[in-house]
Amino acid sequence: GTHGDPTAMTFCFKEEDHTLGNALRHVINKNRDVDFCGYSIPHPSEAKMNVRIQTTDNTNAIDALKTGLQDLYDMVAHVRQAYVEDLEKKEYVEFEEIA
């Protein structure tokens, strides 16, 4: 729910870990309207990750999360496109595996 202050919220992601947590924390913290973003894994045996976001009054935590997710998606799409373009040039060396 959205009880209380919309500029300070914690979001729980199920079946996620440090891979998404650290990347998302990084891109959200680049937003100048974000005062704080951090994540935690409550317990290693639980498959969930919590992301805490605190923003200025210029935005709210939900919009900061949406923007961060979109920014991360765009970044990954750019890296993928650059990788595929380089791969299609076939300017790489192939090695045979030694058994």
Give a structural overview:
With 99 residues, the chain is α+β, with helices and mostly antiparallel strands. The protein has helices at residues 18-29, 61-88; strands at 8-14, 34-40, 48-55. Strands 1-3-2 form a three-stranded antiparallel sheet, with helices on one face. α1 packs across α2. The longest helix is centred in the C-terminal third of the chain and has 28 residues, at 61-88. It is elongated and about 60 Å long. The model has no long low-confidence stretch (mean pLDDT 95).
List the helices and strands and how they pair.
Elements (H helix, E strand, L loop, with lengths): L7 E7 L3 H12 L4 E7 L7 E8 L5 H28 L11
Antiparallel strand pairs: 1-3, 2-3
Helix pairs in contact: 1-2
Describe the structure in brief.
It is found in: Nucleus. With 99 residues, the chain is α+β, with helices and mostly antiparallel strands. It is built from two helices and three strands; from the N terminus they run βαββα.
Features of the shown structure:
elongated, three-stranded antiparallel sheet, 3 strands, alpha+beta, 99 residues, Gyrase A, domain 2, single chain, 2 helices
Count of DSSP-assigned helices:
2
Write down how many β-strands occur, each being a DSSP E stretch of 2 or more residues: 3
Strand order of the largest sheet: 1-3-2
Task: Give the helices and strands as they follow along the chain.
Answer: EHEEH
CATH topology: Gyrase A, domain 2
* Beta-strand content bin: 15-25%
Q: How much helix, percentage-wise, in residues?
A: 40-55%
Q: What is the average per-residue confidence, as pLDDT, rounded to a whole number? A: 95
Rg measurement, Å: 18 Å
Give the low-confidence spans. none
> What's the CATH class, please?
Alpha Beta
| CATH architecture annotation | 2-Layer Sandwich
Structural class: alpha+beta
The count of domains is: 1
Q: What characterizes the major β-sheet? A: 3 strands, antiparallel
- Please give the alpha-carbon distance between the first and last residues: 56 Å
Estimate the global geometry from the Cα principal axes. Answer: elongated
| CATH H-level superfamily title | RNA polymerase, RBP11-like subunit
